[in-house]
Design goal:
Blueprint (H helix, E strand, L loop, with lengths): L2 E8 L6 E3 L4 E6 L23 H5 L5 E3 L9 H14 L3 E3 L1 E2 L9 E5 L2 E9 L14 E2 L4 H12 L4 E7 L10 H13 L3 E5 L7 E4 L2 E4 L4 E3 L3 E7 L4 E7 L7 E8 L4 E9 L2 E4 L12 H22 L6 H8 L4
Parallel strand pairs: 1-3, 1-14, 2-19, 3-4, 4-5, 8-10, 10-11, 11-13
Antiparallel strand pairs: 1-17, 6-9, 7-8, 12-13, 15-16, 17-18, 18-19
Length: 327
């Protein structure tokens, strides 16, 4: 039986091994396939001049989601190079562009004689570069934008997949406001919600018979040490991260010929991505206060861990933050 597989965030700095028995697949392309252009200001800039997609997956994806906070990291020039690469290799794309092409939403693919529509959007909290009337960028996540596109898709598709780049990084639970949005999009006609951006697996639920994956985690996202904080002339610093175990865990979503959704979990073990049993969070915070309390505990534990790894006398501002972290 054929299947369509959905993968999480992908950033390839070299070839990797993927042992997932993929058929047709789609992932979130979390970087431009070029570093030629003007870097986006005041952020960590991802980009590669060499594509390792074919070397890693042994075949090309049928489509990629471009609605994320890194696809415009090297501006219009790198974005256009990325689009050229995708089109030359018959890879469909959605979630980024400009107003005239509706940010390439929807992308509609035929799968087993059924039309599957794909939509992608980025939340303003991710600090994405958004498109407008003349400039390219990510599609903006608003209730109105998503629901209008869902309504248009209902007339020409059998199944609607909404990709949302949202949530707080490293947090395993979704925001109550995001829970409300996801359910609202299901009510409007979406059949599957897939979240990215947190770089960890987040909670999963079935709402009115439709699956919502608030965050499926990284598919392949390596350690990095990159220039950052471009001020318009030069990079002001470097940013680095060693990915923890939870950053290497991911959900792989399967859509079968009968449009039934199932999933497995996988783990990036060094250079190989393979299926592995991983716990998926179940709790869904019901109120903003519940989420805020969890966030405060998480932030304090992170500060304590950082102090243990690098002991030093905390500053006054750090003490204030520790005693009253707000989110």
């Amino acid at each position: 039986m054929s299947k369509l597989d959905f993968l999480g965030d992908v950033y390839l700095d070299k070839p990797y091994m993927v042992d997932l028995n993929l058929n047709e697949f789609i992932f979130n392309l979390e970087f431009p396939l070029s570093t030629s252009g003007i870097p986006a200001k005041n952020k960590i800039n991802l980009g590669m001049d060499i594509s390792y997609i074919l070397e890693t997956f042994k075949k090309f994806p049928v489509a990629v989601n471009l609605a994320n906070n890194h696809i415009m990291d090297f501006g219009e020039e790198a974005f256009k190079t990325t689009i050229e690469y995708l089109e030359n290799n018959n890879i469909q794309y959605f979630g980024a562009g400009n107003k005239s092409n509706n940010y390439n939403n929807p992308c509609i693919l035929n799968f087993n004689q059924k039309n599957i529509a794909f939509l992608g959007y980025s939340c303003p909290t991710t600090s994405a570069v958004f498109g407008n009337d003349v400039s390219n960028g990510s599609a903006l996540l608003t209730d109105e934008n998503v629901i209008n596109d869902i309504i248009l898709c209902k007339e020409k598709s059998d199944f609607i997949v909404v990709n949302l780049h949202w949530g707080d990084e490293e947090i395993i639970y979704p925001k109550p406001s995001d829970i409300d949005k996801a359910r609202k999009f299901i009510d409007a006609g979406a059949d599957l919600i897939i979240g990215h951006h947190a770089h960890v697996i987040q909670s999963h639920e079935i709402y009115k018979g439709k699956p919502i994956y608030y965050g499926i985690g990284n598919c392949i996202f390596p350690d990095f040490d990159l220039p950052s904080n471009f001020d318009g002339e030069v990079f002001q610093s470097r940013s680095s991260k060693i990915q923890a175990k939870h950053n290497k865990q991911t959900i792989v979503i399967h859509l079968d010929e009968e449009l039934k959704v199932t999933h497995k979990t996988a783990f990036l073990d060094g250079i190989k991505l393979k299926y592995s049993k991983v716990k998926i969070p179940k709790w869904l915070p019901k109120t903003a206060n519940q989420y805020s309390n969890y966030y405060k505990l998480w932030a304090k534990s992170r500060m304590i861990k950082g102090f243990i790894q690098n002991p030093r006398i905390p500053s006054f501002s750090q003490m204030k933050l520790f005693l009253g972290v707000s989110k």
